[in-house]
Description:
Blueprint: E1 3-14, E2 17-28, E3 32-36, H1 43-51, E4 56-63, E5 66-67, H2 74-79, E6 80-83, H3 97-107, H4 113-123, H5 140-152, E7 158-162, H6 170-187, E8 190-194, H7 198-204, E9 207-212, E10 215-221, H8 222-226, H9 233-241
Parallel strand pairs: 3-8, 3-9, 6-7, 7-8
Antiparallel strand pairs: 1-2, 1-4, 4-5, 9-10
Amino acid sequence: MTVSITVEGLEVVFDRFRALKGVSLELREGESYGLVGESGSGKSTLLRAITGLAPASSGTITVNGKTLGKTRDKAFYREVQMVFQDPYGSLHPRQTVDRLLQEPLAIHGIAEGEKRIERALDEVGLGKGFRFRYAHQLSGGQRQRVAIARALILEPSILLLDEPTSALDASVQAEVLNLLEEVRRRRKLTFLMVSHDLAIITHMCERLMVMQNGEAVETLTASQLIGHRVSEDYTRNLLRASEGFVRV
């Protein structure tokens, strides 16, 4: 078994507030792994710590066999990309889709930009017709598809997904989730996915970690969660709060 991400004893502190308290997890290559919990439980902070956007005060993060320091180099971002929650906030409103996709290629000095842009747009179901549109001309679902295309264009092996569909309508959510699942299968990607929606996590992920107040409460398989075979009261309360939780 090849491991893509290992986090051990990770602590993140903001102005004396411990956002993460000794969190550990192991993510296997090609796996889709979920993080669930209430707002403020530390799910997004964990993703941000992996990408270097949140400062780790102690603990270690290892990605594809390399233990990370305080900063992330270009090689890291070739391997790991993040898709954010808000497709409205994550795209520059004054740049065309073409420019948004050209930027990461230029930063990393990657040639064959034309081919990569066309392939990325085709892969997310948009096509050439969207290349020279601006973000404000796109629907929420189309913007999130552009954000996914931008993450894929560097051909990473790992995608970090921070509530990637929570800002979208339910019908569009399903389309984007199906797209992500298809892309993961085709590219053999590893996903680490944050969601407050247990039905989404059990649909998308094989294993998951439940978080509360910056700590790991328990680690489960999706089938254990669906079958309510859980150990902790906090997880039981999450299940009760998820009225209409889909049993697959």
